[in-house]
Amino acid sequence: MLRSTMGCQIEPKQEPGRRTPLRGLERRRPITRCRALQYAPCATRYIAPRSYPASQQAAIRCRVGSLFIIKIAMPLIGRLPSYWETHNGRIVLSALFIFFSSSTAFFAKLLEIYAHQPGGLLFSASVIALFAIATVLFFLLICFGRLTRWILALFVLASSQAGYYMAQYGVVIDVDMLENTMQTNPAEFWGLVTPSLVLRTVFLGVLPAWLMLRGRLRPVGFWRALRARLLLITGALVAAALLVVPLTASYASFIREHKQVRLYASPLYFTYSLVRYANLRWFPHAPQPHRTLAADLKVVDQQRPGQIVVLVVGETARADRFALNGYTRDTNPALRGQRLVSFTQVTSCGTSTAVSVPCMFSALGRSRYDSAEARRSDNVLDLLQRSGVQVLWRDNNSDSKGVADRVRFENFRSPQRNPVCDPECRDVGMLDGLDAYIRDNAGHDILIVLHQMGSHGPEYYKRYPTEFEKFRPVCRTGELQRCTKEEIDNAYDNTILYTDHFLSKVIDFLKPYDRTHGTAMLYVSDHGESLGENKMYLHGAPYAFAPQAQIRVPVVLWVGQNFSYSLETAMRYRDTPFSHDELFCGLLTAFGRATSLCEQQRAFFALRKPAHPG
Questions:
Q1: Which range of residues forms the domain containing residue 532?
Q2: What pTM was computed for the model?
Q3: What is the CATH number of the domain that holds 505?
């Protein structure tokens, strides 16, 4: 047994009748076992022609692999500590760490698309390299002077959080998601804190941020630093061009057909979203006066009895999980015994509560919705109150998202107000005291809005009392990827079962008033939910790419015998496509109010008015 100068074990074995074509060092007897080979098999795969004997191929691969490790890799690794002390070095190394540690969802989406296509792995590697270069360029352009270390530390902390939620739940950090995050209450926040998040924050956030802050950067003159920065930027741009040009057709297809994948690249896209959000939220344009809508609003049906309408705003319910809509599991045993209609083709205004709730009550509709415009304009609750309807909003969720700012609001998230808490306060507790409210407002039309906790995730198992745990086993953690699909489905379906119970209680509450009033209940969920389909969880996906599970929502209507519009008429439109846009005019129609804003609009409450009895 001999040992070569490269540290490889070789055996003096020559194949008979064949001379080696190698020259120089390669003329030595073939290397058949080489430790270096295990470190660089991919880098040397195509160096040795396949026409050579297997033993000679191994020799060439071993030689090239050893040279790569000793001559290139090891010197580069040895220079990293000194490179880390330079401004450019710290920026480049930190940018690469931030990108590769927080973009695992991006890598997974790429491989899901291209892994099994011819040349797909090569193209995926090219895209990853291109986005890594783009990340380096981004930090080279924003990091200067003494702020460099603080900017990098801030980004590594933010990226550790963004990367976790994108990888864990498949969400995209866009403007709507940031708005949803800013409106998250403490209870919702703690429901999202998991051991995995804590570990990721510490090891991929806090410790790297500390390393980026400690140690001084090597001082260098301004012009020398500028020249080095410009050379580095130029080199990065050239490298990016070399990656794109040979694969132009593939990149064109990627941009055209898979736009949503780039949204998972961190920190580029979430930084873009943060800038847009800050511009919209914290740097608004000149203050605008409050807009009063529907100056021509009038009462058109004076002969009807007083109306009592309960509007239940659901949370995170999917239309396809309601047995009323054909779901195979019996998730609606209580509602099945009521006389009602379930609309099967309703789409939401958004994929998050922060967007959908204010949007459905505004006159803007999804296509024209703007959060700032909605806040400074009248919504349908304002119009009803202005026309004499007594409006009450009771909330067992986070809040009304600004919808109930000008009407009576009651918070039912605490045991001090909600009598049904175990310890989580239940939706059914919002019915407490409503009889007294109706008595106090006798002689007036009444609209009561009940904002549910509903099926709010990811801790679905907390959204219902134990007696409603019909489907088992259930997922008992907020880390949904640790649960099976069956466990997640079971926990979620139990939340729908409890919503069924709650809605039936609302109907039973209204029935005694049906003798003297026109009564109705309308249930509308704000958005749907992804439960692991295509590795997506929760909600909040950009609407253009959102799956049907997040935008198809259940809508249930029950009306009493004296209500102005008949259930039979509404039944005709059970399978008609509707959206949240119909709610604004639907509520006005329910209370016999008319305005030119609604002349061309449809409504959840029967689209055609029947002759009034008597």
A1: 299-598
A2: 0.78
A3: 3.40.720.10
